[in-house]
From TrEMBL:
Designated name of the protein: DUF58 domain-containing protein
UniProt entry keywords in alphabetical sequence: Membrane, Transmembrane, Transmembrane helix
Secretion signal, residue range per the UniProt entry: none
Domain DUF58: 207-357
Recorded coiled-coil stretches: none
């Protein structure tokens, strides 16, 4: 039905142009004189051009889109280049090009940037660029391109949508942190977040007498054959400090700051040569196992680029139900903007075998309340360190922890 209605509109527009052309011609024939013929000859090119636009197929256009960089960081800019080509250089007075992009990539003031007005006339190749500044973190889709044109009189207007899909992934921004392994004590008991001692069993540095509990593989059998005394190989000790980041995905105005902090923290830890893992839970779970290396950093950043504050459960419920997904032997570093007694209790219950540190992200200039001080005291009594970190001031967070 809609297709039939469009056909009827096209036919009526053609009849309108023909009637106007015939009317001006009849007026010139019957009236005569310079003015009437001037009116006819003035209207003739406009009417013929309108009919030309009507019959010219926009399918003659082929469009390509190129993006200079498809992996970007939040806050950066990107330049998109669009190129149109056609076979027949039919003169077109104007052409409106609209790039269909997911709205998440634009602020209100930037939406007009994807809509461009150009004057191609006889050009067979048209190239234009536009820039998107201050890119937000996330995955953004370019789905299609729409081209529109029309005649001088505004009678005929044509449009065509060309499906052309591209995706850019904008990674979270980060700041440089000087990460230092922590060794902190609390009011009741002690909890160490220092590096765990591991033996490098590939390098033997000496021998000692056998002690109950030593592994059989550590026994030095050659010396036992010579002296008939059991001796155990001593190995070089090396230190490691595995960390595991847990990001709170409950809706928060500070969520982007939390993602920036997590990205910065993971980079600082991995830069020290340590191992790091990542977990968050929302509409779907994100889990990156504890590993090290530059490739592993990209895996964490990839998850952080796509993460959204879409959890429908409270964070303490996530800790309770998803605690099995977390690394029990690593230092757990929790990043949240909501500090509650229930959260402290649940973290203590779910992480009895690991050291926990909570980074409490707050807006700049927000002062702590007495309730927060009581919650921090509760956490300290359970061996959990809570560190307040203000948005925009993440660089010195570990030096501040050391001083504390």
């Amino acid at each position: 039905m809609k297709h039939l209605w469009n056909r009827l509109q096209e036919v009526s527009k053609v009849l309108l142009v023909l009637v106007l052309l015939a009317g001006t011609f009849a007026f010139a024939m019957f009236q005569g004189g310079f003015v009437s013929w001037f009116l006819f000859y003035s209207f003739l090119p406009f009417s013929l051009y309108s009919l030309l636009v009507m019959i010219y197929p926009l399918s003659d256009f082929t469009v390509s889109r190129s993006i200079k960089s498809q992996e970007l960081k939040a806050g950066s800019s990107v330049i998109i280049t669009i190129q149109l080509k056609r076979s027949f250089p039919v003169p077109l007075f104007y052409l409106v090009l609209e790039d269909q992009v997911s709205t998440s990539i634009f602020s209100t003031s930037q939406v007009s940037q994807v809509k461009k007005l150009i004057y191609p006339w006889f050009k067979k190749t048209i190239k234009l660029e536009y820039e998107i500044e201050n890119l937000p973190r996330g995955e953004h889709d370019f789905t299609s391109l729409e081209i529109k044109t029309g005649d001088f009189l505004g009678i005929f207007q044509k449009s065509r949508r060309l499906h052309l899909k591209d995706v850019i992934l904008v990674y979270p921004s980060y700041v440089q942190m000087n990460y230092q392994p922590l060794n902190v004590r609390f009011d009741q008991g002690a909890a160490s977040a220092d590096m765990k001692i591991q033996r490098d069993t590939t390098v033997a540095t000496g021998l000692r007498e056998y002690q109950p509990g030593d592994r059989v593989s550590w026994i030095h059998w050659k010396s036992f054959a010579r002296t008939n005394d059991l001796m155990t190989k001593e190995f070089e000790e090396r230190k490691s400090h595995d960390t595991f980041f847990v990001l709170d995905r409950t809706p928060s105005l500070l969520f982007e700051d939390m993602v920036t902090f997590t990205s910065s923290l993971s980079r600082a830890v991995l830069k020290k040569g340590a191992q790091a893992g990542y977990f968050s839970s929302g509409s779907s779970n994100q889990l990156v196992p504890v590993k090290s290396g530059e490739l592993h950093q990209r895996q964490i950043d990839y998850q952080l680029a796509k993460v959204q504050p879409d959890s429908r459960r409270s964070f303490n419920e996530v800790i309770k139900t998803e605690g099995v997904s977390m690394a029990p032997t690593a230092i757990m570093m929790v990043v949240t903007s909501q500090l509650t007694r229930e959260l402290i209790e649940q973290i203590h219950e779910s992480s009895k075998t690991s050291t926990v540190m909570i980074f409490y992200i707050k807006a700049k200039g927000v002062q702590g309340s007495s309730e927060e001080q009581q919650i921090k005291a509760l956490a300290s009594s359970k061996g959990i360190l809570v560190k307040e970190s203000y948005a925009g001031h993440f660089a010195n967070v570990f030096s501040e922890v050391k001083q504390a």
